[in-house]
Amino acid sequence: MRNGAADRFENVLDLQTAHLALMQRQQDRRSAGGGLLPQEEITDFLARVARTGAVLSTPADRRIAQRVLDYWTADLLDTARGYSGPVATETLLACEAEDSDARPAGLAEGHGSREYIRLAAQARQWRDTRSHGYLLSGKALRSAERFSRDPEIADLIAASLAEEQREARRARRRKRIAAGLTLALVAAVAMAGIFFLKVETATHEAAEAAGEKGALARDVVFLGDEERLRAQERQVALENANVERRIAQEHMDALSERQSRLDAAQGALADLVTAERLPLAGLPDGVAEDVLRILALRQAEGRLDPSVLAPDVAAALAPVAADMEGSVFALDLKGYDPLFLGRSLPLPALDRAAQAAAFRGGEAVPYVHFSFLYNQARRAPLVAAVNFDRAARQVLPATGTPIEPDPRLPPELRPDPSRFEGGLVAADYVDRTMISWGEPLAADPFRTARMLDQSVQLHLNKAPVHPAAAAVWTGLTRWIREQHNRSATRVTFFTGPIFQPGESAVPASLWLIAVSLRDPVWVPAGQEQPFVAEAFLIPNRPDTLMEEPWKLAMTIEGIGRATGLRFLDEIVRADRGRTIVNATEGDRLADRAGALNDPPSEDQTALMAELALALQGGRLPASEQAKIIRELAGLLAGPPDLTSAGRVNVLTLLAGVPAESWNRPDWIVLKAEVRRAVVRVREPAPEPEAQGLVDRLAGALGLDEPPPQRVFIQFADMTRESVRSLAERIAALGWTVPPEERVADASGLNEVRFNPESAEDAAAARLLAADLAAAGRPGVRAVPLSVIRPQVLEVWIGGPTR
Questions:
Q1: Are 413 and 278 within 8 A, CB to CB?
Q2: Which part of the chain is the DNA/RNA non-specific endonuclease/pyrophosphatase/phosphodiesterase domain (predicted)?
Q3: 578 contacts 555 by C-beta, under 8 angstroms
């Protein structure tokens, strides 16, 4: 299979065979519980693939080999290995059959975890908005394929590839697409009528379509043109299924809104009948029955004395009230089902401190579709565990059930009513929507609604929080119910409080964990469906604001440490946020910078003001400002290209950075990145409204005043064309670069030499090293050498330029 030296594969077929064999061995080890392949074996394989580039001449073969490199590089960087450093993909050697001076193919700039974070944020924007403006294309799309192991990035890649293929084939497939769209429209209208009667169908089909999407993202790397065409057709089907899912959700929202209006109208009629301002006999039969049920609810809850009613109303109410009596706590409540998802997901275990504080040693108290573990010391929940079935949801009437204690619990577990002092309001750990699903508890929907409300209208289910935090909590729980792993029909929620040390009954934060199973289409045959899990934390503060949900993300492991709960290891490992590193203010602002390229809005104006204050007002330390500037530089350099308004926004912020900040020693690499981005913006000339900003920024970065130092390049083990290309890139930054010189002594070197007696030359050498890195030659060191003449910088480099 390999040549005599056994250091490379002879052709791309041998390479692919070895790649598939290695993938199978990796899968066999995982199935047997043996873990991942040794890193040394994978790095050896990567080196052999890279060397195989010397015998691959066709672009198609080189593309396949490069994707194999990307795949195993991504495997090495998988979070399961605990790696969080910079990403650097191997590249192929140049083909020996080509001209010896040809530039090696497949060169890739190194990217760090910042690229992954940016791609993940862009993928979430696509997931939530489905706006084509977030799709990738060209070089950005090819670069993103190495992160396709992330499900949300894989979704973005799949959609981007489909869109790219659709654009390329649009002319010759116009009639076919038009027919397909017509059929899709007819199907969507037909399905809308069906979903009005049965929501389960939409959920099931959306789940299947999401699985297809995952399969598409997983397989698309090695698809040929014919297979890509079929993948595009599947993508169209997926988009239709997404339409159906949205119709189902809109139908549920419409039913909920209709029920709210109906509740208000029926309540008003009941008030009029109670006050004898409206005769019961004057109402239609169905309306009269509903009014009697509402009156029966009020009587059962002690809010209505039947003696005040008209005799005919009291007589009609008596049998209805008898049926309405009773408590949900008289039923045989099963509570939380650990097998609900199809895999065992037990309640979290308790550490020693939590066990000591727990009610009855941590015994679960069952309710309808959920259970509580109580903290007797705090008189509050330790955790609520909830089963939720999206496909079996019900819309039920409001009941007005008052907040009561659970009659099964001792009085000493009842919380202190004074915990709501100071303007605090109640937030439900478990709200009725979470448990309004499945077979009705009674034939009468009013009685079913009352029993469900009895399960959640409990003192111990009410967390005392600030009104702002309550609003955020309500919005987050609704978002998670609808958006978490949308292909999953069944979801389990864990919720609870976090208390600060002391005796306060007011929680410092509320948390929520959502868990479901990956769609089986994504899972190899014979394997269990893995968990999908994500966690969120809401600070209980008066100034809590609703952020994008992922900005409220927390790790499951962190929640466990803060609460004394030990969650199942599998969901800790499946946590989408397990790589979260305590995000700083700079991280959060940098993550929002992409919105500068959106259409103008009030939110964008506010963001501009916030970013300008962070970069100019001294509110953030320099290290945090650098995170924002690096993100802005990435946006400016592209891809994707900025709109005219987006470019002006980014340039406005960069041009506002104080000039002295660019000369900070710890910003020299950042300065080089921005210098390179500005040069790219100048070619071609920017639009008039951006030109002044570009000139101002260029002046602050020293681009309009060429350095007095001359740069002489000595090179070895490189093609002359590649060195000239590097020289042109740094010359574009203002450096004076005479013709290069091939010198054998430069082999293995990577340095800029300068005269140590000149402070100006030393500063220029450090800037030149950073500019070389930004131009594609990383790792260059500034080296003082007394034999170098003043105002001369010598670049000694040996080996390929990346």
A1: no
A2: 366-574
A3: yes
Structure tokens at 242: 């997404």
Which of the four CATH numbers 3.40.430.10, 3.40.570.10, 3.40.190.10, 3.40.50.1260 does domain 330-574 have? Answer: 3.40.570.10
Among candidates 36, 35, 39, 47, which has minimal Cα distance to 6? 47
Q: 494, 512 in Cβ contact below 8 A?
A: yes
Q: Among 9-23, 469-483, 729-743, where is mean pLDDT lowest?
A: 9-23
Domain residue ranges of the chain, discontinuous segments joined by +: 12-110, 125-239, 255-329, 330-574, 585-689, 710-798
Pairing verdict, β 490-498 and 380-389: antiparallel
Rounded to 10 deg, the angle between the 445-456 and 285-300 helix axes is 30
Span between the terminal Cα atoms of the chain, in Å: 29
386: helix, strand or coil: strand
Distance CA 765, CA 782 (A): 6
- Cα separation values, 60 from 64, 102, 106, 223, 433, Å: 6, 18, 12, 12, 53
Strand pairing category for 750-754 and 741-742: unpaired
Q: Which amino acid is at 775?
A: A
Q: Does residue 416 sit in helix, strand or coil?
A: coil
Cα separation, 674 vs 671, in Å, equals 5
Q: What is the amino acid identity at position 174?
A: R
The CATH fold assigned to 710-798 is: Alpha-Beta Plaits (3.30.70)
Maximum mean pLDDT: which of 47-56, 368-377, 548-557, 605-614: 368-377
Q: Which of 736, 750, 727, 764 is nearest to 796 (CA)?
A: 750
Nearby residues of 723 by Cβ (< 8 Å), 6 or more positions away:
713, 715, 740, 797, 801
* Count of helices and strands (H, E) across the chain: 25, 16
* Phi-psi category of residue 702: left, alpha or beta, with phi > 0 → left and psi -120 to 50 → alpha: left
**pLDDT tens per residue, range 218-238:** 444 444 455 555 555 545 554
Beta strands in 256-392 (DSSP E): 349-350, 365-366, 370-375, 380-389
CA distances from 491 to 38, 45, 248, 391, 563 (A): 35, 40, 18, 11, 22
Distance of CA 537 to the CA centre of its chain: 15
List of residues 6+ apart from 651 with CB closer than 8 A: 636, 681, 690, 693, 694, 697
Which of 102, 238, 73 has the alpha carbon at shortest distance from 163? 238
Range from 387-391, 466-470, 547-551 carrying the lowest mean pLDDT: 547-551
Written as six digits, the tokens of 26 are 């990796």
Q: Are 736 and 711 in contact (CB under 8 A)?
A: yes
Two tokens, residue 357: 């504080």
